[in-house]
Write a structure and sequence with these properties.
alpha/beta; 10 strands; 236 residues; 6-stranded mixed sheet
């Protein structure tokens, strides 16, 4: 088990963390990718999103991170309308999220330590206030001996673990992870799952998109499934 964090997660309000009502997404000149998605993620809940390749899992996560906007329906985050929010409001929503991208999105010119510390620095924290937390998180994901190394020198699995450490170091209200165990072995996959479970017990809402249905079932999390652009489970 990981050591207890030095500070608890920011407690989300009593409202649902995520609420989608009739949400759809499609391109003007093509078929809909997502259709009539109704989804509620209560504050402090834990969910796995499964489904075949091309089902729309990554697109749904992009809607939740506000990288894309719904073409139909209503999307609320933390009790506020987000799908049609002005661009100036988006950073406020995103500061309450931790996101693990499939392509990692690490900064090659920064060390592993500085990649993990980046969201804390952007929030205005001083190095002396976060150095211990960052080192602790790197130790937990098995990179305590690589903290001064830069991403180009790391393996795919190490980059995956570094991206996860960066996403969770702020103890966000909502964690969105796209295939977070896809580049690691089964033992590390279980260890990373325990990290997500630990944060969930502190009150963080967690949604993991994964092809690994065995891991999803073993997690004890609520299972959501996308197929043909439609969602089963988690409906309002």
């Amino acid at each position: 088990m990981p050591v207890q964090p030095r500070r608890a997660a920011m407690t989300a309000s009593a409202t649902d963390t995520v609420r989608l009502a009739g949400v759809g997404f499609g391109y003007a000149d093509g078929p809909s990718v997502l259709r009539d998605i109704n989804l509620i993620l209560p504050a402090g809940s834990f969910h796995f999103l499964t489904g075949p390749s091309g089902a729309g899992k990554s697109t749904l996560l992009q809607l939740l991170t506000l990288a894309r906007r719904p073409t139909a329906g209503r999307l609320e985050l933390f009790g506020e309308e987000a799908g049609a929010a002005p661009r100036s409001a988006l950073p406020g929503f995103r500061r309450r999220m931790g996101v693990v991208f499939q392509d990692f999105r690490l900064l090659d010119h920064l060390s592993a330590f500085d990649n993990v510390a980046l969201p804390l620095r952007l929030a205005g924290a001083k190095r002396e206030s976060y150095a211990g937390d960052v080192a602790e998180m790197l130790d937990w994901v098995g990179l305590g001996q690589r903290m001064e190394d830069r991403p180009p020198t790391l393996s795919g699995g190490e980059k995956q673990r570094l991206a996860i450490a960066r996403a969770v170091v702020t103890r966000p209200d909502l964690i969105l992870a796209d295939e977070p165990t896809g580049s690691v072995d089964a033992v590390m996959g279980e260890r990373l799952l325990k990290l997500f479970q630990s944060l969930n017990r502190l009150g963080t809402t967690v949604l993991i998109a994964s092809h690994d249905e065995a891991l999803a079932r073993a997690s004890g999390a609520s299972l959501l499934r996308l197929a043909g652009g439609r969602l089963t489970g988690g409906e309002a």
